[in-house]
Structure formats: structure tokens, C-alpha cells
């Protein structure tokens, strides 16, 4: 199915298209990228678009935007199946899937209120991914407590 | 090799080093029994920073350093220190590490010891961080078990009481699970061993939750009893019910194996009746005494260079 048929908004000249976002999570993606009406970016947003496979997805197009590593990590945590398209002169120059990072620096706030990273100490949080069966967890380098993906999503989209 | 190493959690010490600590602790125990003078830490200074109350850990660390011929500087009352003026742990540690060769710290926040180790220019030993870890308590617990049985393999260990907030059991279960042990956990539902500890275990299938002490009384080799704190219960009637189910009196003890031992990190309140103290299975005071020898071995290995 062509993009013209699927998408109801025009192509962008330069910027990024974040595709295959979990249906209903587009607002969360914008939230973690700290993009709101006041940030000046031209943003197109599609929610619950039908894919050629009969599933649903969200799509976000942001004009004149580059993504940093930290922002890619944030997107992966909100929507691990998202793909990033980098567009230049209306052409997709690069396309890749986001991937959940093994180690996350300065993104997740430890939900353990008694963790030293929640005190006024000069440290940034560090979390490391652990796989327990089909469950993904991130463990705090300092207090060694774990957070589930749902807990992380809640924490970073607040 | 523990030379110049931080000891933040029990994972920082290999099994090989655990047995080296035992070997050295036994050596120091013998020397002290013969009243031999030890001077391996002559000229070395230890800073003890206890931001939370401590009796045994603090005294045994300070005693260990003095017995090795070293000296100790300390803050007698954390409330009088700069921490009370809002100084960060990071700054306090930077300062303390410039005054001494090794730092022992206890702090009410989890992860404080890891943070301290990152800001210190000298080795940091975790003397307990919130409900996190207490690795040196684990070493002396292990040493006491090893002295009795000569091995960990094949042992059945029961941990009873507050397994949620008790940091000693959080470290101990990790260490024991590295050996061929069976571990039974007996606790009120609200004070069960947290998942974030179970998920760190190498052999979680060797850990069994038991409903009551009765199930494990005649099969366990080691009973590790922890204090159930009254303040964890909103309703004191609930506390009264719980403490009855997890306490050890002479009848409980008589149902145990003759060769079993009872350990407790102390202080105990209601969970072990004083009448048990004279039973040969009561090993908790010997365990506390071992704290000095084990900490001597550890300090000597970190600063001495074995």
C-alpha cells in the first residue's frame, strides 16, 4: 500500500519520521522528546493508522529535527518497535529501528525514593538492562532495585 | 585479589577471596587468642562514617583496625557533622578520603556506598546502606557457618523474620546461593524477600518459600533469624500475631537437628527467647565475636595487598 494511500498528511522536506509507534503512544513519544506547541517544530501526528498487515500504528513527523542518542533511547523505551526515517530533500536518507539500550544514562529516575540518586548528590542515574525469561528489567546501578518497562514508561512520560 | 578494592556488595568478593578471608580471619583469631601483637596496619588510618546508628558493626570495625595496629578517625555523632548542614555524601567522602587510607560508611539511603566508592580516592567498605546491602556482615555470617560445617555445599539454610527490609539477608542470600545450598525463606507475607533480590540470584530454583517454621525445623542446618521491627506494622496487634509465629523458644529449638546452629545479626528483641542462649545451637554471640576477626582479615587484604 503506497504511503499516499496510507498517510493522510504530506511528505516532509527535511526532518524525521518516527514510524511504527505503538498505537496510542504518539503523544508519549512527543512528550519524551519535549515537543509541545511551544517548541516551534512543525509536527504531524497520525494515530491508529491501519498498516498493510492489518495492525494499527502511530506515526510522528517532525520537520527540521535531528535526534540525539538520548532521544533515540527515550523513544525506544516508549515504543520499542518504532522505526526512524531521516528525511533530506523529501528523500529517506537513512532508516533504522530503535533498539533498547543495554545501559541507560541520565534518563530514568529511580522509583526507589530512598535511592541515593534521588538525594541532592552530584550523580546521574545509570540503569542496566536485564532479561529474565521474556521479561525486560532495568536495574539501578546505585540501589540495585529493578524497574519494569511499564514503570519506566510511566516515569519518563510524566 | 582484594587489594585496594571497594566492598560495596557481596558480588564484589569472589568465592576464592571469601575463602581467603576465612583463612586470614582464622589466623588472626589464633594470634589474638595467644595475645600476639599485630602491626600490619601500623601508620594506616581508617575513617568510620556512620550516618545511622550502629553498635556491633562500628565497634568491630574500629576494634579490628586497632588490633591490626592502625588507627581510627570518626565522627562521633553524624548530626554534628557537616552532613547535617546539607553537605553531600560525595563531598564528605572526598574530604574523608584525603584524611585516611580506608573508609567504612553506613548510610540510610540505598546506593550511598556505591556513590561513595565513586568519589573516594581510597577503598570504601559498605557498613550497610538503607535496606540495601551489608557485605561484611555476610562475610562474618559465612565465616561462622564455615567454622561449624567446613563447607557450604549440601547445607539447608532457613532465613526467618523480616526478609524485606533486613539488609543482612539481602547480602547473605546472594552469597549462599553461589554455593550448592538449599535456602528456605520463612516470613510474614508483608515482609517477604523482594523480587529485586531474588532476580539477582544465580540459582533461584534452590530458594523455597516456606509457609511456617514447622516445615523446616527438623531439616535445616542453619537458622538465620532477623528482627521484625514493630514500626513496620500499623496495627500492633498484627505485630503481636506475627512475632509469635517467627520466634524461637526452647521448644522450637528442641525440634531442631542436634547439629543445627542459630544465627542472628543482632540486636534481637522478641524473636529469640533468652532461654535459648545457653543451648549449644545458639551461635549468635560467637557470630558477633567473629565480626572482629573477619573485618581484620578484610582490612588487611585490602590495605595489605594479599
What characteristics describe this protein?
heterodimer; A: Alpha-Beta Plaits; SH3 type barrels; 2 domains; 4-stranded antiparallel sheet; 18% helix; globular; B: 306 residues; alpha/beta; Rossmann fold; 5-stranded parallel sheet; 4-stranded parallel sheet
Characterize the structure shown.
The complex is a heterodimer of chains A (158) and B (306). Chain A is 18% helix and 35% strand. With 158 residues, chain A is α+β, with helices and mostly antiparallel strands. Chain A has two domains: 15-97, Alpha-Beta Plaits (2-Layer Sandwich), CATH 3.30.70.140; 103-156, SH3 type barrels (Roll), CATH 2.30.30. Chain A has a five-stranded antiparallel beta sheet with strand order 2-3-1-4-5, with helices on one face. Chain A has a four-stranded antiparallel beta sheet with strand order 6-7-8-9. In chain A, a hairpin with a 2-residue loop joins β4 (83-88) and β5 (91-97). Chain A starts with a helix and ends with a helix. Chain B is an alpha/beta fold. Chain B has two domains: 10-133 and 291-304, 3-Layer(aba) Sandwich (Rossmann fold); 135-287, Rossmann fold (3-Layer(aba) Sandwich). In chain B, the strands form two sheets. A five-stranded parallel beta sheet of chain B has the order 7-6-5-8-9. Chain B has a four-stranded parallel beta sheet with strand order 2-1-3-4, with helices on both faces. In chain B, α3 packs across α4 and α5 crosses α6. Chain A binds chain B through residues 112, 114-117, 119-123, 130, 132, 137, 139-146, and chain B through 9, 86, 88-90, 107-112, 114-115, 118, 129-133, 195-196, 199-200.
Amino acid at each position: 500500500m503506497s504511503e499516499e494511500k496510507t498517510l493522510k498528511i504530506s511528505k516532509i522536506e527535511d526532518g524525521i519520521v518516527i514510524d511504527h509507534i505503538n498505537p496510542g503512544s504518539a503523544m508519549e513519544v512527543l512528550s519524551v522528546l519535549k515537543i509541545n506547541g511551544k517548541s516551534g517544530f512543525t509536527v504531524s501526528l497520525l494515530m491508529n493508522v491501519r498498516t498493510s498487515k492489518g495492525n494499527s500504528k502511530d506515526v510522528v513527523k517532525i520537520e527540521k529535527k535531528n535526534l540525539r542518542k538520548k532521544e533515540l533511547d527515550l523513544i525506544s523505551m516508549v515504543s520499542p518497535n518504532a522505526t526512524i526515517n531521516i528525511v533530506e530533500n523529501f528523500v529517506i536518507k537513512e532508516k533504522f529501528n530503535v533498539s533498547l539500550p543495554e545501559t541507560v544514562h541520565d534518563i530514568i529516575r529511580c522509583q526507589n525514593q530512598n535511592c541515593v540518586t534521588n538525594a541532592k548528590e552530584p550523580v546521574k542515574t545509570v540503569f542496566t538492562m536485564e532479561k529474565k525469561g521474556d521479561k525486560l528489567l532495568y536495574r539501578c546501578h546505585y540501589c540495585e532495585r529493578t524497574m519494569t518497562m511499564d514503570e519506566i514508561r510511566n516515569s519518563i512520560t510524566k | 585479589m582484594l587489594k585496594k578494592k571497594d566492598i560495596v556488595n557481596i558480588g564484589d568478593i569472589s568465592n576464592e577471596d571469601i575463602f581467603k578471608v576465612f583463612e586470614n580471619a582464622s589466623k588472626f583469631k589464633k594470634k589474638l587468642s595467644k595475645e600476639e601483637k599485630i602491626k600490619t596496619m601500623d601508620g594506616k588510618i581508617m575513617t568510620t562514617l556512620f550516618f545511622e546508628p550502629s553498635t556491633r558493626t562500628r565497634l568491630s570495625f574500629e576494634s579490628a583496625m586497632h588490633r591490626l595496629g592502625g588507627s581510627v578517625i570518626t565522627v562521633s555523632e553524624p548530626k554534628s557533622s557537616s552532613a547535617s548542614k546539607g553537605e553531600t555524601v560525595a563531598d564528605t567522602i572526598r574530604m574523608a578520603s584525603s584524611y585516611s587510607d580506608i573508609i567504612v560508611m553506613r548510610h540510610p539511603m540505598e546506593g550511598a556506598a556505591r556513590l561513595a566508592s565513586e568519589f573516594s580516592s581510597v577503598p570504601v567498605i559498605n557498613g550497610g546502606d538503607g535496606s540495601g546491602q551489608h557485605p561484611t556482615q555476610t562475610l562474618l555470617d559465612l565465616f561462622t557457618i564455615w567454622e561449624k560445617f567446613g563447607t557450604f555445599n549440601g547445607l539447608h539454610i532457613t532465613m526467618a523474620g523480616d526478609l524485606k527490609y533486613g539488609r543482612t539477608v539481602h547480602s547473605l542470600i546472594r552469597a549462599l546461593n553461589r554455593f550448592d545450598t538449599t535456602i528456605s525463606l520463612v516470613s510474614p507475607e508483608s515482609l517477604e524477600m523482594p523480587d529485586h533480590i531474588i532476580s539477582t540470584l544465580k540459582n533461584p530454583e534452590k530458594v523455597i518459600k516456606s509457609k511456617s517454621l514447622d516445615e523446616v525445623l527438623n531439616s535445616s542446618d542453619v537458622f538465620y533469624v532477623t528482627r521484625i521491627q514493630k514500626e513496620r506494622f500499623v496495627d500492633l496487634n498484627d505485630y503481636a500475631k506475627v512475632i509469635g509465629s517467627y520466634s524461637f523458644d526452647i521448644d522450637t529449638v528442641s525440634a531442631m537437628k542436634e547439629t543445627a546452629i542459630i544465627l542472628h545479626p543482632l540486636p534481637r528483641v522478641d524473636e529469640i527467647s533468652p532461654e535459648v542462649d545457653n543451648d549449644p545451637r545458639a551461635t549468635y554471640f560467637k557470630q558477633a565475636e567473629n565480626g572482629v576477626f573477619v573485618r581484620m582479615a578484610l582490612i588487611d587484604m585490602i590495605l595489605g595487598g594479599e
